[in-house]
Amino acid sequence: MTRVTCIAPVNIAVIKYWGKRNETLILPLNDSISTTLCTHDLCAKTSVMASPEFTEDRIWLNGREESIKNPRLKNCLLQIRRVARDQTPNVIPESWHVHICSENNFPTAAGLASSAAGYACLVATLAQLYGVSGDVSAIARQGSGSACRSMLGGFVRWHKGVEESGSDSIATQIAPASHWPELRILVLVVSDHKKKTSSTIGMQNSVATSELLNYRAHQVVPGRVKKMEKAIMEKDFTQFAEITMRDSNQFHAVALDTYPPAVYMNDTSHSIVNLIHKFNAAHGQIKVAYTFDAGPNACLYMLESEVPEVVGLIDWAFPAKDMKINVLRGLQTERNVPKESLTGKLEMQPLSAGMLQYLILTKVGDGPQKLEGD
Ligand code: DP6
C-alpha cells in the first residue's frame, strides 16, 4: 500500500468567475483573479491510499462515505491516471484502486470556496501519489472551476483560454504570497448554513437568462483584469480595493439580473457593505474592501496596520457577546475600540447581536503542500 497526504488552500476571488462557455470541461466566460489564503487558518486535507487489495475506488468527505460516481470526481481521477500512464507508468500499477479521505478545517458549504480547496487538494494529492509532474491546474479546474486557482499560492489568475479542448484554460501566478506580506483578509462568517443555490446551478441560470452577464464578461472584466494585475504588482491598495468591491457588486448585480434572481447576500451582508463604505468615507480614503461569493459571508481585505481598528469596528457594529460560535480563530490581535469621532461619522447604530457567527483573520499564503512523514 502507498499513501500520500496533502493540504490545499481556499482562494478568494477579487475578480469573479461567473458563467461557463463549456459545462463539461468547465471553461469560463471570463478570466478571474484571486488571492490564495494561508492554509494554517483555512484548508482542505486529503489522504489518498492505493493498494492492490482495494476492490474499488472509494471516497470519504469529512468522515462520511460519498458516491465515487460523482462525474467531476471520476473525471479528475481518470485524467490523473491518464497522465500517469504516459509519464510514470511504474509508480502505481493500473489495476490498483484508491481510497480517498478528505476533510476541511472550516465549515463546508459556508460559501467559503470549500469545493475549490477540496478539488485542489484531491488533484494535488493524486498527482503526488502517481508521481505526476507539471501543471495540473487544468485537471483541478474540471473538479470545480475555482479549484484551479487553489493550485498556486499568492495572487493567481485563471485564464479563460481560447482552445476548444480547454488546454489553455489554466491558472498562473501573478505574484507569490511574499510579494505583498502586509495584506490581510478578515472573513466574517454570517452563516455557515449550506447555500440555497449552488454556484454551479446559479451560473447556469445566469448564462441562460442574464443580459448583464455577457456585457460583464466581454466588456468589463478584460479591462479590470489588467488594472487589477497592475494594482497587485504595484501594491496599490486603493486600486486593488476599489476594483475588488466593484467586481463583487457587479457579480451580485448579475446574480440579481438572473431570472428568477439568485439572491446570495442577506441583510447582514448589506449592512457590512454599508459599514465599510461609511468607514472608508469617514477616513477620506479606502482602508478596507469587501467581497462576497455565492453566499452571505464577507471577506474583507486590508493592510496589516488597519487590522486593530477594523476588528474594533466589527466588534462595535456586531456586538460579539451574542455570537453563536464565538470562535476567533487566528485572531490573536489587538482591537481598538472605535473613537466617538469615528462612530459619529458612521451615522449608524450597532446592529443586532448574533448576526455574525465568527471571524477568521488570515493572510495570503502558499499553494498545496505535501505533508511529510505520512
Ligand atoms: C462566486 O468554482 O464553485 O465563488 O465551477 O461550477 O464548481 P463550479 O463553480 P465554482 O464557482 C465559484 C464562483 C464564485 C466566484 C469565484 O470564486 O471566482
TrEMBL record:
Pathway: Steroid biosynthesis; cholesterol biosynthesis. InterPro entries: GHMP_kinase_C_sf, Mev_decarb, Mev_diP_decarb, MVD-like_N, Mvd1_C, Ribosomal_Su5_D2-typ_SF, Ribsml_uS5_D2-typ_fold_subgr. Its EC number is 4.1.1.33. Catalyzes the ATP dependent decarboxylation of (R)-5-diphosphomevalonate to form isopentenyl diphosphate (IPP). Functions in the mevalonate (MVA) pathway leading to isopentenyl diphosphate (IPP), a key precursor for the biosynthesis of isoprenoids and sterol synthesis. This is Diphosphomevalonate decarboxylase. NCBIfam families: mevDPdecarb (TIGR01240). One of its GO terms (cellular component) is cytosol. It catalyses: (R)-5-diphosphomevalonate + ATP = isopentenyl diphosphate + ADP + phosphate + CO2. One of its GO terms (biological process) is isopentenyl diphosphate biosynthetic process, mevalonate pathway. The keyword Secreted does not apply. Residues 185-370 form the Mvd1 C-terminal domain. It is an enzyme of class 4 (lyase). Pfam families: MDD_C (PF18376), MVD-like_N (PF22700). It comes from Gryllus longicercus. Residues 8-171 form the Diphosphomevalonate decarboxylase-like N-terminal domain. GO terms for molecular function: ATP binding; diphosphomevalonate decarboxylase activity. Belongs to the diphosphomevalonate decarboxylase family. Keywords: ATP-binding, Cholesterol biosynthesis, Cholesterol metabolism, Lipid biosynthesis, Lipid metabolism, Lyase, Nucleotide-binding, Steroid biosynthesis, Steroid metabolism, Sterol biosynthesis, Sterol metabolism.
